[in-house]
């Protein structure tokens, strides 16, 4: 076999014109990624959703040989019915979907409008678990000509159980692509002034609409198992910093704005203090009025609307409390969209 050198003019002529190296500029996808949600409240869709969620080794760190018999034999035989009944209470019947999906879509649509002046940008939204799947949305963006994707896991505070697994799933989708896009990921924004300002304004606006001034306001974050935190997940520190900055911004005392962790799952210890126990204790201690805000949830969902809006309210009233308010998440409000838009514009710099 003979190798023809580029210096050989005869061989170069026979090979035809060389490629020019010109590659048309691609589009840029912005992908909002939220946790995920079931497609329906019946047993089957609840089972599918919970199976995908609770099979994620970033979420349940137990050895599969130990966890799977518990998951399939116990959790997936009982929890779909119980959780399905909770989802049914908050279901968006007009669209036949969960609020988490409705709000995430609304955020994506509003972000698309806000970035409308940048023709190379395509905004879309996906779920880590369930639909629209991360893989299908990544594929759709690539098919629309995106050779760069900005991944935006919608969690202000980082946790391996949420932020990291959202990015894992995006890269898993890329593993199946020959021409995979470049990826950037929006970092956690737990201390960003735009986020703290948005929370403070939203809280002030909602408190002004109440007929009472709460004695205590609770910032309640989704918990994680304590061992995850002990092993280095910075989530707890991020939550505490958000509340500290919020307290500073609102000019409130340590006693007025407190931090708790909700939504325990399973038998092991989770981050403390627990929201339900704290709400009960406040009632027993004679506190008559409280408000709860969920800064760690970018949109209202089962954990805020049902666990806080219904369950925590009941717990407080049973413990002797009188006035209870649940402050909505930022959702697709003007304040909430200002946060998302600011983060996206900043992280796109250099690409646009
Ligand atoms: C070990 C289990 C779980 C960990 C760890 C966990 C972390 C975690 N989750 C969120 C945000 C959300 N979780 C939601 C629902 C939900 N979470 C778990 C379990 C763990 N979460 C379950 C089993 C469920 C399903 C509901 C139920 O059966 O009780 C939701 C709401 C989804 C919706 O459709 O409304 C959100 C949002 C965070 C931020 C987090 C760690 C920081
Ligand atoms: Fe959760
Ligand atoms: Fe819950």
TrEMBL record:
Its EC number is 4.98.1.1. Keywords: Cytoplasm, Heme biosynthesis, Iron, Lyase, Metal-binding, Porphyrin biosynthesis. Pathway: Porphyrin-containing compound metabolism; protoheme biosynthesis; protoheme from protoporphyrin-IX: step 1/1. One of its GO terms (biological process) is heme biosynthetic process. Coiled coil: none annotated. It catalyses: Fe-coproporphyrin III + 2 H(+) = coproporphyrin III + Fe(2+); heme b + 2 H(+) = protoporphyrin IX + Fe(2+). It comes from the Bacteria. The keyword Lyase applies. It is found in: Cytoplasm. GO terms for cellular component: cytoplasm. Fe(2+) binds at residues 222, 303. It holds the Pfam family Ferrochelatase. InterPro entries: Ferrochelatase, Ferrochelatase_AS, Ferrochelatase_C, Ferrochelatase_N. GO terms for molecular function: ferrochelatase activity; metal ion binding. Its main location: cytoplasm. HAMAP family: Ferrochelatase. Catalyzes the ferrous insertion into protoporphyrin IX. Belongs to the ferrochelatase family. This is Ferrochelatase.
